User: Fold these one by one.
Assistant:
Number 1:
Amino acid sequence: MNPRFLLPLLPLVSTSFAADPAVKVTVGHSTEANVFKPGEVAPPAMNDAGAKAFFKIVSGKADENCGVLPVLQDGKAAGNDDDPEHNFFFGIGEKGGRISADLKGPIDLKEVATYSWHSGERAPQIYKLYGSDGSAPGFNAEPAAGVDPASVGWKLIANVDTHEKGAGQHGVSITGENGASLGTFNRLLFDIQANDDPNGWGNTFLSEIDIVDAKGPALQRYERKIETLTSKDGKFKYILDSSESPDLADWAKINLMPVMEEWYPKIIAMLPVEGYTPPDTIYFTMKQATTLPGYAQGVPAYASGNNVTLNANFMRDQQGGEAVGCAIHEIVHVVQFGSPGGSTRGERPPTWVTEGVADYIRWFLYEPQAKGAEITKRNFGSANYDSSYRVTANFYDFVIKNHEKDLMRKLNLATHNGYSADLWKEWTGKTADELNEAWKAGNKTRLGIE
Ligand SMILES: [Zn+2]
């Protein structure tokens, strides 16, 4: 037997008064090719305390081809057995390294689970797990390589080595015997060793680290959850991916998708362009804010081609509020730009033009009762025809009521065939500035502004 294989630490000596529980290390392994299912260890959780922890490299250098540290927190394993972007690993020639997890406060630690997947030497996990509450005298939160963490205020929790299992998927679960707590900690330290590889390519492809708070919510495990809805006439397909937010799957099926099915063909009919066909399939993906790219974490939704990404955190908060309307806005973009042939054949309009169309259809046609695009005493002063989104939508409503009923179709045509500011005069007999003045004067009177 390989002496390095699995050495759960039994507490022989303890400096604290309470008896430490025995620690149990369970190793799961499989050579599944498609789905991540590491044997007897449950797949990664999405809402564990690790998802909110702050991970930091304390020693060693990350490989330049690996994902950023948050891939260890996104609740997902890698997509296949050689998927560097969805793993974190130390660089070629590094003999492992150390990663700390700041738990932002003490937690009653129930379990730590670590996951890796690789077709070769980078699959096995060899590490020591330490925990600390930061209270020991001389505590060092970031012990450099060569410094024994146990000598600077860290307690060794477990010693893991899955080397004997070879290539494939590895899952490690560290718990107390019989469900006992592992202790109260506010920091963890993973002291990771590289596997033997003559070329120095032995650093583990770590896919996920789960840290489970005994007092935390029930764990949600990542599972691919995709449903396809085909329109009654068979023309359109709406594909809903709720893998990252299974709690929203039923809400989306009942409250969101039927509205998309009703409105997508309507919007297509409103915005016809000769020689251009909007996509017949839309993908809706509900993503956790933490797995969105940084620039998108604060936005409710966005569309790219025929992919609509919905921020699950926003959807969850706004189920009875803005969620569905915000998806209507995005499918207007799918009609505008969703097919490759949708690229403009002339001057592309400024974004306020197209954002205004998306918000006009949302606020004035889909949910006029919400009165979400009103000009009020508060926003009157800064409202201009090109303020974009809701304000521009309100301006369009004024133009449609007073000058040009067919404005949506014409603006969309201009989006495809070429836009110019002169079009306003051509359509209404007035320039955009003249229309702006008339719209503002009407609002001023209506609001009783002196
Ligand atoms: Zn938009």
Number 2:
Amino acid sequence: MNSKQVFSALTVSLSALALAACDGEADAPVEEIAAGDCPPGITVENGWLAMPAVAGNPAAAYFTITNGTDRTIYVRAANMVGSESATLHMTVEYDFEMQMQEVAGGVTVEPEATFEFEPGGTHVMVMGLSEEMEAGAESELTLTFAGGDKCSFPVTLYPAGTDPRESEAEEG
Ligand SMILES: [Cu+2]
């Protein structure tokens, strides 16, 4: 029922695509379109990026990913528009110091589970931000899953030291 409501809300903007699908575009099922730019059942929300305090340093991107499918998914790679490269990172304590390292084998999201990419935890390290990528701008992050599926979503750029989750908590 929910998905039907979503379909009707999207009917206007997707009508052209729906017509194309009726014309025999069998490899563009409606479910994929209705789920946005992610595979069916997978959603990503609250995408944001913390700008580096020093220009040229890496930035870090965070978001909430929900796996509504009945199978485990593995995030294997990330790319962001307006950057040279991006790496899946986790923060670990080593020798009593917090350090970052690449996530070996990808980030696992269990079936029917939500996983937070968040400061102090798992994040996407973004290298080589282009000059147009200023605080307040929006970019697009794309995740690649094991098997090759991709998921693209917007990320809002915030100045270094700003955490939009805190301001939301204060407002609420
Ligand atoms: Cu990192």
